[in-house]
Structures are given as structure tokens and as C-alpha cells.
Amino acid sequence: MKIATIALALSVASKQSTVHSYACIATSSTSGRRLGRIPTSSAAAFSRARRPHRTACSLAATSSAETETEQPTSGTTFWKARQDCWRPDVRDVEKISWGKPASKKGKKTGSRGVPHRLNEEERRAFDQARRQGFLQVTGSSWRSQRRDAPLLNSYRSLMDARGRPSIVLHKLSPNSSGGVDHGDRLVVDLSPLRLPSDFERVESELAKRMESEFSVVSDTMEPEDEQSDGSMSIEESALVDEETAVSDESDYETRPIYQLQPHFVCWNVSRQQGKAIGKYLGQLFDNVEEKAMKSRKPKGVKPGRGRRHGGYGIG
């Protein structure tokens, strides 16, 4: 009798242990799917194993060395961009191009002394440049209302945010006879790479490739006087804040792009040749944003006022 009682007690205890050794995992809050029944000890281990993994991924996602600039994907090795430096955020560049403030003051993304706000025509050119990999502007893109070239400012800031050279095709106005006065000019600015020690080497390699592929020779860009209509020459519209401009290599780590001197490589080209070379360089430097969408005007954007009318010239 005692033996039968003991056996019955052991059987009941065994069943209770089996019941309590399993736990039905509820619907996962992260994946939205129901998991199967697994032992409680395994569930705890599974939960503990996943938490450190998510933390590690989160830290990796915020690493400045990997997210500040995109890495080249075309397999080119003759150029690279500095990683351990300050760069603006692409979203902040887009915001100041609408005249909106950056997400946080003190980020140095924009400056009241250097206009970035685009008008409707400049907005179309800006969006097109992101899809094509190079910017096309008429003349120097000078805007008399702002006494500057906001389109070049915004595009240079965008390229700085992405760690890519700025490629601009300046389409010069035709003369009365239907021809072109000086031909078009294609300009590559290497300063967004923020590696001044590499500029000469990259310029030399780039010049060789252009001469080999398109039979064009690079031309040194010399400063010119202000134009008769009050606008600036192409090289003077390089969008540098002259009062705070620097050229020391250490300043490329912390200064915003509008305070850094540009490093130009340029070619005199025909219209058709300029577009072909611009497309080639856009692919060479991975400037093309295939998924770039048309800019949408954010809420609360109001017309800006120029310096002459009490504004700050940011519009």
C-alpha cells in the first residue's frame, strides 16, 4: 500500500514538473509572430542572448565613423573621404535649403552669412543633380537678390554630408550669333573629401583619366574680377565665407564646408561633352542617388527676406 502511494505521488510530481517546465511565449512585440513552446530555461537564455545583440547593433548604427559618410561602392581606389571629422546631416542640409533651421542649433550646418535657401527653379536643378550625379547651372548661378549663389551653397553642403566631390557644369549663355562665348565649364571641387593632403594626387589622377577618356585637358582656374552686371565669376562663387575661411589641414576636421577653401579641377568643354563627362564623373565618385525623391515643401515655410529688406539673406 505504501509503495503504491509513493509511486502515485511521484507520478503527480513528475506531471506538475513537466507542466511548469514549459512556457508559452506570447506574441513577440518586435517581430509580431507567435513563437512555439520552448522550455522556460531556454526562453530565458533566448531573451538574454537577444538583448546584448540589439544593443550592439544600436551602438554600431550610431558609430560616426561608419555613418557620417557613405563608402565608395564603385571599386575606385584613387580617392577617399575623411571619416573622422564633422559633417552635416543630409536631412539638415535639406531643411536649410527650404529656409528652415537645422534640427539642433550649434551644428554649423548653415550660416546667416551664406545663403542656402533655394527658389523653385533652383529646387528643380538641385533634385535633378541628386539623380544625375552632377549639378547643371546657368553661368555662375549668381542670384542678385541674395548677392550669392544659394544653389551652389546647398549642393556643396550636400556633397560634404555625403563625403563626395562636388561636380558642377556651368552652362554659359549663348551670344547673339547663336554660338557660345567661351564654351561651358565643368568644375570639380575636391574640398568635400576633407583630405587636403590627397588633393594634388586625386587631381593628377583625375586629369589623366579625363585626358584618356575624353581627350580634354584640365585648366587652372584663376580668380577674375567681379562681372559687369555685379555678379561674381564662376570661381568666386565657390561659396566660401571669406571672413572665416581657413586652409589649415586640422580645420578640415571641425569646420563647416562654407569656411573651407575649395580645391578646383576644371575643364573647358562643349555642352554635349560637359554632360557626358559630368555623368561619367557622377558614376566614378558614386554621386548618383538613384532613389532620390522630388523634394516636398515642408509645412510652415514662409517667403524669406533679403538683407536689403531687413532679412538675413537665408531665402
Topology, element by element:
Layout: H1 2-20, E1 22-23, E2 38-39, H2 40-61, H3 64-67, H4 90-97, H5 120-132, E3 135-138, H6 150-162, E4 166-171, E5 184-189, H7 199-214, E6 264-269, H8 271-284
Parallel strand pairs: 3-4
Antiparallel strand pairs: 1-2, 4-5, 5-6
Helix pairs in contact: 4-6, 5-6
Describe the structure in your own words.
Helix content is 35%, strand content 8%. The protein has helices at residues 2-20, 40-61, 64-67, 90-97, 120-132, 150-162, 199-214, 271-284; strands at 22-23, 38-39, 135-138, 166-171, 184-189, 264-269. The radius of gyration is 29 Å and the shape is extended. With 315 residues, it is an alpha+beta fold. The chain has a 4-stranded mixed β-sheet with strand order 3-4-5-6. It has 8 helices and 6 strands.
Name a few traits of the molecule.
single chain, 315 residues, alpha+beta, four-stranded mixed sheet, two-stranded antiparallel sheet, extended
Shape descriptor: extended
Average of per-residue pLDDT values: 74
Contiguous helical run count:
8
Strand portion, in percent? 5-15%
The neighbouring-strand order within the major sheet is 3-4-5-6
Elements, N to C (H/E): HEEHHHHEHEEHEH
Structural class from helices and strands?
alpha+beta
Summarize this structure briefly.
This protein is α+β, with helices and mostly antiparallel strands and 315 residues long. Helix content is 35%, strand content 8%.
